[in-house]
Amino acid sequence: MYPKLQLFIGGKWRGARRDMAVVNPATEEEIGRLPCAALSDLDDALEAAVEGFRIWSRTAPRDRADTILRAAALLRDRQDEIARAITLEHGKPLAQARLEVIRGAEFFEWDAGEAMRTYGRIIPAAPGHRFTVHHHPVGVVAAFSPWNFPMSQPARKIGGALASGCSIILKAAEETPAGAIHIARAFEDAGLPAGVLNLVFGDPAEISGHLIPQDPVRLVAFTGSTVVGRHLTGLAAQHDTRVLMELGGHAPVIVCEDTDVEAAAATGAVRKMRNAGQVCTAPTRFFAHESIFEAYAAGFVDRARATVVGNGMDAGVEMGPTANARRVPALTEMVEDAVARGATLATGGARHGNKGYFFQPTVLLNVPESARIMQEEPFGPVAVINPVASLDEAIARANAVPYGLAGYAFTNRADYIARLSDEVEVGNLSINTLEASMPETPFGGVKSSGYGREGGTEGLENYMTVKNVWHASQIG
């Protein structure tokens, strides 16, 4: 069920002198050895990507799209095999892993269509002159994907790069490498030219520090923490390299007094525990109108307590473990800090069981703004529910963090929806749903949650350069 772990460079699979363990977070057992790229491997990947870009950038958009679609079809065909590998390394329930494989395929399918729609335009000019605008692939992309979605996060980066005509060197997450390896295998089998897609693993600082300063690298695409994103942005700026950054979030949920309280509470609890809360768009800071606060909190807590926690391979499990051993003490400290500052621990708050990196579904009520969890993303199955007296207060508190990736609201009032749409400071606002994005919609953040967009018609813009051509029919 678990693939052989290798680097993919220049169309060939290879090992490395150094390796590291990949551990199943549900059992704490080693399930594979992951090769770590040396600097010579990175140089080989860069050389391969330069040649891959030469070939791929000159490939017709329809031919690029056909290759991407073939790879997406293979991923769909291999859904069960890939999902089982993801559950083994990440811990998420098998049903969620299967959905993630399909979501990754959908990203590729959307980008394949967009590959044929990178239109230019003609700008009106004086007689004898013509202005035309052209879009060209930016070049070699150095991309970095996180561990929380082993399939769909690499798919976003690879899909955007390949649809645009770029080549890519992807450093995928060392904790969860199987999704990216399956993607590389699918593209290999789909006939992608050698060097267009290169996959490496290893020390993140060493890899980013070596690749980003290289002249052929013209875009750095990163999904991860704000702290690391700022460091990579600074490194890229030293070499005039553009960046695409999807950084951390701390998503607010505004629950208005006119909503269906029972349905909103159940939806919030289920969505909060998805992926064990390890989602950059996870709903975390819930602000419920004071007239419904008690009922909403009670319904939320009841559903959170009912969450079935266990090994993702087991039937009926709704929430698996957190990703690694570091998460359990980090979440425990954050909960203890909130309680020490006056918050009420309604449920959870500690490790679940004594095997694996499980943390109990946790709900905190009446949490003061001074608590760490009100300013720092917990990235775990911990929800905060606070009462608010008005929509004004809810919006102000929703915006009172430096992050702005996703936000949510539950209401049926048109005037509330208009205000929320205008005033909540996020890149993605969802109303009466806790789904943040689809392949056809642009996804990205504002403020400290990054810049640039993935998905939608905007998704390829970061991977393209714009050239204006001025053609005069006569010299002079």
Structure description:
α2 packs antiparallel against α5 and α4 runs parallel beside α5. The protein is globular, with a radius of gyration of 23 Å. It folds into 2 domains: 261 residues, Aldehyde Dehydrogenase, Chain A, domain 1; 188 residues, 3-Layer(aba) Sandwich (Aldehyde Dehydrogenase, Chain A, domain 2), CATH 3.40.309. It starts with 6 loop residues before the first strand and ends with a strand. The strands form 6 sheets. Strands 14-15-16-13-12-18-19 form a 7-stranded mixed beta sheet, sandwiched between helices. It has a 6-stranded mixed beta sheet with strand order 9-8-7-10-11-21, sandwiched between helices. The chain has 13 helices and 22 strands. Helix content is 36%, strand content 23%. The protein has 476 residues and is of the alpha/beta class. β5 and β6 form a beta hairpin.
Helices and strands, with pairings:
Blueprint: E1 7-9, E2 12-14, E3 18-24, E4 29-36, H1 39-56, H2 61-77, H3 79-90, H4 94-115, E5 121-123, E6 129-137, E7 140-144, H5 152-164, E8 167-171, H6 178-190, E9 197-200, H7 204-211, E10 217-223, H8 226-237, E11 242-246, E12 251-255, H9 261-273, E13 283-289, H10 293-305, H11 327-340, E14 344-347, E15 362-365, E16 382-388, H12 391-398, E17 403-404, E18 406-410, H13 414-423, E19 428-431, E20 446-447, E21 450-451, E22 464-472
Parallel strand pairs: 7-8, 7-10, 8-9, 10-11, 12-13, 12-18, 13-16, 15-16, 18-19
Antiparallel strand pairs: 1-2, 3-4, 5-6, 6-22, 11-21, 14-15, 17-20
Helix pairs in contact: 1-7, 2-4, 2-5, 2-6, 3-4, 4-5, 9-10
